[in-house]
Amino acid sequence: MTSTFWDETLAEIKKGITERGHPFRFFTLATIDQLGAPSQRTVVFRHFNDNLSLVFYTDERSQKVQEINKTGAISLLFYHPENLLQITIKGKASVITDPEVLKEYWSAVPDGNKKDYTTHIAPGSTMKNPDALEYLNGDHHFCAIQIEPNSIEYLKLKRPNHIRVLFTKVNTSWEGKFLAP
After folding, report:
1. Do 45 and 25 contact (CB within 8 A), yes or no?
2. Is there a contact between 57 and 143 (Cβ–Cβ < 8 Å)?
């Protein structure tokens, strides 16, 4: 009975990659910081693979990479305001190290966006003047993060009843169960 919601979940997530302007193009990534507190930021959704892994890009010097390297524990939040649909994904994140995969991803980054990965100082570093930010010539700090989900929660806000379904990965398959909203 939960298969309809599973199909909708996957379809909406895929639209975040395939449909220009879809609200799932951006999602909130939560990690655990060095003090054990949640740390959130919005990232751009880049790839969704057949095995349901998700990929986003970042600067390898960013705080989120350090946090991912420490525990790998993440939570993602997608929200579609028109459909009143919220998808929460929990799982493990890891830095992609395969040089061929990284080369493929880097080559697909538009030239105008590549400078985002070439700043002289790391993201989050203090600076006196944002207009004086320097960029590296030829070098970059591009990094790709892969997320392997172990649970996906669907929440549809509607009347007369909200619908909430938790999908959990069991071995290689996914099982769904309804939750009280």
Report:
1. yes
2. yes
